[in-house]
Each structure stands twice: as structure tokens, then as C-alpha cells.
Amino acid sequence: MTRRLGFVVLLVFGSPALHATALTMPDYMRAVLAYSPEIRQSEQALIAADDAYKALLSSLFLPGLNLSITDIAYGDDPKNGFHGGIRIAQRDRSSITTLNWNVFNGFQDLMKARYASDTRDTAAMDLEIQKQSQALAAIQAFYSLAATDQLLEVALLDLHAQEDQYNQTQQLYKVGMKGLSDVYKSETEWHASEVRLISAQAARQNARKPFNSLIGRAPWTPAEITADLELGATDLPRLEEDAARLVERRPELANSRRALHQAEIAATQSLLSSLPTLSANASWTKTDAQGAGLWTGRASQQVGLTLSLPLSFNAITQAYSYAAARAARRQAQAQFEMALRDNRNALYSAWLSLEAATKTYALSVRQEEIAQRGLEIVEAQYRQGATDALRMAQARSDLLSARVQRATTLQGIFLSRAAYRRAAGVSLW
Fold first, then answer.
1. pLDDT tens profile 290-304
2. DSSP 3-state assignment of 22?
């Protein structure tokens, strides 16, 4: 029997040579964040948005240089007695160099810069959202794997106990203290524990799939962890305080509020584009006449003021455009309020789940203590012949259920804590 138990243990845990290096939660979190293609994609999106913002700023507020050089490469030049053929000479060359600077254009450049700044900040919040999502997935995968480790341990303990009971029942049967039915019942429970062990192993193998995929490993790669399962303080978080800080903490709400700000900017731009535009431009121009040589002409400086109506101005089109922009602004306001409501509901749901998990775990610990004590009493009675295998099996089943419940609810607390922190906008990584 012992040899068979050793074979089952080897089947469950595998050869020690195949084990990977055990990872702690901080190690695993760093590995997940470093590998995540979703995070890398968001990082590149942020870089692109930041570069686009800087490019827009430079085009809006820095002067622009225009240079044009003209040369006649082929043709007639009767003035100089040249008829036909290739003609590349300094006398045929002319150039115009202009430096333009848009000094003012009715605040339209300022509105564009603010809109681009919001787009960049939205990309930054999208990156934060991805990091939070991947960090939550890492916590779920890590503690789910830790729970299967605990359930495997419970299954092994149950298998060992059932085997001992079967051996004990056989000895009691030989001395006439137990009947044949007790032997059959003990053997049945022993085989049932083997089935449970196989199921626990299958559950652990399934738990390896998300654990490995988050760090870019093949699903079947051996996965070993070192989990710190100390709960620490079990006080519930302060719900109202966290709810009051949702807007400043949750990146999703920050993006929703930024979308509202962009809608306000769009409405302002629509209003400005409906009105006459006053613009001021400064220019510096240097013209080199044909044949005079490059950079020999005189330069001129100008500052121009322009007052212009919108393109295709008819008042009605502009009025409806502004009305549509204001409607879009109100839509963004409603979307922000919906997002705030949904996030508050999500925070409260996470708080309720954490409260239930905390209370359930405390009860499951007590339940395990009672089941353990009850089993000890029944075991003593069984050895004395005062009870049968059915009662013994029930007592062991009660203890097994209590241990499984404790392991499951312990996992639930860690996952509920992470879910609440995510809902409250507190960083998980």
C-alpha cells in the first residue's frame, strides 16, 4: 500500500528535476508586467501620442522655413547667344527664402494644443488601465494556483488517512471487531480519495495555463510558487472614503472626464470657427534675382493682420455646427456621470464580496476545528468497535469538506482584496 501511495504522490508532483524555480508574488508580478504585449502596445501608443503632441506644438508655435531654388536646366538663351542644349549656369539661378511665424490666429492653435494634450493624457491613462488589468490577472492566476496547491495537499492528506483507515479496518476485521461490510466501505472510501486526488491534480494543471500564459511560457511548463498566505489585518476598507476618491484614482474615470474636457474644447473651437478670425503673421523674405547668385539679394520683413469670415459663411451652417458641438458636450457629460455611477456600483459590489469572503473564512476555520475534533472522537470510538465505517466515512468527509472550504475561502479573500483595490483605483503593482 505504501508503495502505491508513493506512486500516486510521484504522479501528482512529478519528478523534482522537472520543477521550475519557485516564484513569489512580487517576482511573478514583475514578470507579468515585463512580458505583457498589451502593456507594450499601450506604451507605444503613449509614445506615439506624446510625439504627435510635441510635433503639433512645434508646428503651431515655432516659425517655419521655406526655401525655393530655381534653375533652368535646358533651353534657349538668346540674350546670351545660347541656342538649345543643356544650360546650367549661375546666371539662370534664382531663389526665394521665407521665414513665416503665425503670431496669433484667434486662439485656435491654443485649442488644438489643449485637445492634443488631452489625447496624450488619455493614452497615459490607457497604459495605467492595462497595467491594472494585467496586475489583477496576475494576482488571480497566482492565488488560483496557490489554492490548487492547498487542495492537492488536502487530497493527499485524505488519501493517506483513508489508506490508514483501510489497513486498520483489516486488522480489526481479523480480530473480529469489524465486519466485512466495514472492510468494503473503507476500501471504497480509499479509492474515492484516489479519484479526488486525480481531480485535484487536473485542477492544478488547468491552473498552470493562465499562470504560464501571462509570462509567455507554454501552458504545460512546470509552475512552482512560494505563496505568502498570511492574511494580516482583516479590517474592511472604508467604503465611503474610497468612493469619494474614485474620480481622482480610477484611470477609467479620468479618461471619461478628459473626454468631457475634449468635448468642451470642441464646442469652443466650433464657436470660434463660426466667428470672424483675426490673425497676425510675421514673415522674413529674401529673394535672389536670376543671375545675381544665391544669398545676394535684399531681405524684407513684414507683419500682416488678417480679419476673415469662416469658409462658406452663411450663419445658419455655423449655428447648427455649434449646436451639434454643444450636444456632443452634453453627451460626454452624461457618459461621465454613467461611468461614475457604474464605478461606484462596482466598488460597492467588490466591498460586499470582500466582506462575505472575510466572514466565510472565519467560519470555515472554526468549521475545520470542529470537524477535526469530531473525527478524533469518532476514530477513538471506531478503534473500540463502538461505531461502524459509515460513521467514520462521514466524519472524514466532514473534515475534507471543511479543509476544502477553508482553502477556497482563503483564495477568495486574496482575490476579493485585489478586486476591491482595482475597483477603488489603488495600484496593484
1. 555 555 667 777 777
2. coil
